[in-house]
Amino acid sequence: MKKAFFASVAALVIPLFALQPAAIRAADFQVDVKRLSVTQCSMTGSLLNIDPNTGNVSIELVADASCYPTPVNQMASSANMTVVGATTVGGGQTGQGSVNLQLNTGLPGVTNGVTCVPDGVTASNVTVVSGWTSTLCTNCGATASRTVVLQNGNNQTNGTISFKAKCTYQDPGNANLQTVRSNIQSAPTVTVLPGVIPQPDYCESVTELAVPNGLTDAMRQLTGTVTGGLYPGTGKDFTIYTAVWGFANSTYVAGDPDSASYGFPGDNRTNVQLGLERSKYVSFRFRAPSNPVWNNRSGHHQVIPGAAFTLASIGKCPGQFASDPTFPMNAACNISGKGQDLVWTVTSGTTGACKLEPGETYYFNVIQAQGAGNLTTPTCASSLCTFKVNITGTFP
Prior knowledge:
Blueprint: H1 2-18, E1 24-35, E2 38-50, E3 57-61, H2 70-78, E4 80-84, E5 88-90, E6 96-104, E7 114-124, E8 126-130, E9 137-138, E10 143-152, E11 159-170, E12 178-187, E13 190-193, E14 223-227, E15 233-237, H3 242-245, E16 272-277, E17 281-287, E18 298-305, E19 310-315, E20 334-337, E21 341-346, E22 354-356, E23 361-367, E24 369-371, E25 374-378, E26 384-393
Parallel strand pairs: 4-12, 5-13, 21-22
Antiparallel strand pairs: 1-2, 2-3, 4-6, 6-10, 7-9, 7-11, 8-10, 11-12, 11-13, 14-15, 14-16, 16-26, 17-23, 18-21, 18-26, 19-20, 19-23, 24-25
């Protein structure tokens, strides 16, 4: 029995000694790392060790080795993205601008299987309008370029933006072998300036004139009676030109969504008589025609006063009967006396008439007073006087 017992113990001891961790030493050997039977890389080892607890295998290499395909190594070591040209854009009236980007892949030339795409942005007060969604390159070469349109979303603060891209390598011979090189960041950071909202090209109150010559908003007559012409009536709106004189043809381009206040010089052009209260002025707002068919067209507003001496003008402000430091007016834009014509021309060029810049806003002003420098002394002897307007010209 004793012999059998010791024999059993001896049989157990031998395997235990055999399982003690030990490094296997030999001459240098070659190791191939494969995935799905495809060799990813080869390396030379000098020492192989197997951990008996985990089964992990470690190999001491003779030299550094990379287990990535060549294109991946090239992108990993050299890929970058630069801003070509201006790095500060935007500003103007809209805060919109464009930036030119160049992706440098690190590849020596066209490489099958490499695709690079946008991978988002890092931005503050900036949005991308266009240009940063579609693929940058397929089977990429050394570089890929893109122009991106940007918009500053704040009217007061500068915005900043940088771009990110990523490149994917898909092994042409193995659908299961794919590697991504991400976080390719553009440099330097792009600054996008805010737009400057343009000031209105007209004013809405006589008090905005540097020299209002004694007139106030309270002295503006807002409604009144119209006799004669096509659209007579009481309680007519005396602040809007088209409420009295109607609409001319084709004063803006058909389909243009910005059509407000167009219609000058109107279609109500003969014997239009208006009632004007003593010590008041009237100001009818309109926009000069913007349709090119009106370019260099001229017209006459013949203002025929009644018994009272009358002044008329076309100006940038209500109640403006003379040039002003804030809103200049040329001499042709105001008339006085009896039966004079206020001659105007729609043009962006030069003219001896009262110049109406296409699309801009003006007021047709009338007052019965002693003169442009004495607007608060009325010439109407009663509580209400009248004046008449005829409009002539060759219009579309």
